[in-house]
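Proteins fold. Shown next:

***
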Amino acid sequence: MIGAFLWGLEFGVWGFSSSIPLAFSAFVEHFNSMKRWLSFCLGLLPVVALLLAPQWAGAALGRYIVLENNVGYLHIAGTDKGLMDGIPAALIRLESTNSIAGIVVDLRFAAGNDTGDLPAIERALQQTKLPLAILINGQTAGASEKLAEDLREENTGLVFGSAAANFQPDIPVRANADDEKGFLKDPYAAPTLGVSTIDLNTNLLSYVDIDHTTEADLVREKIKDGDQDAATDHPSTLAMPFIRDPVLARGVDFIKGVAALRLAANQP
């Protein structure tokens, strides 16, 4: 009787002790599986953030939008470390929105001294095979200035704006610095009167405001003065907004002009 009891106790202890490694092994496998899944999700997080919310792109990469239906706009706030991380997603987002005719690369007020990502950024922009309009001003400096110079040397586009410390634009466009800061937030906003002009050494027309008064507006004025029956009035036509940022406007015009030339060259 005692022998049977001892045998049963020994068997139970052996069974319990043998199950511990199996349980521990299962726990470790489950833990590793969860760790791999968590690493995968964390790896996707930056891409999802860039695709769903462009404003999350980071301090180095500013916003990116489509202007005038077919011109991509990429604002680089500074050439800091990690800038390249946001460039591919930004280009994909721009090209997937519309059929892009070209890209404006805005380097105004951009500085930074990290040149490590410049070759990769330049290759990414060149691989789009789209014309570039590079915008600079007197506060474009450091690696940002080098980026503008490298892109022009690769014949990927023209440089617009005011001179940087060691770099002259192809098309000089004088603009007030305070106005330019406002234009970065809203290129359609009205600038301070008379401070942003095209350089007279270029063949471009001076930047002027446009009177958007419509025929319907004139008819209403006549009705108010009693000169015409109200029955002849027509619905007013909403005026289309236009880019008031003179530097950006020149860049957009350049890209649209190149697109028109390419279209004409492909026609029989």
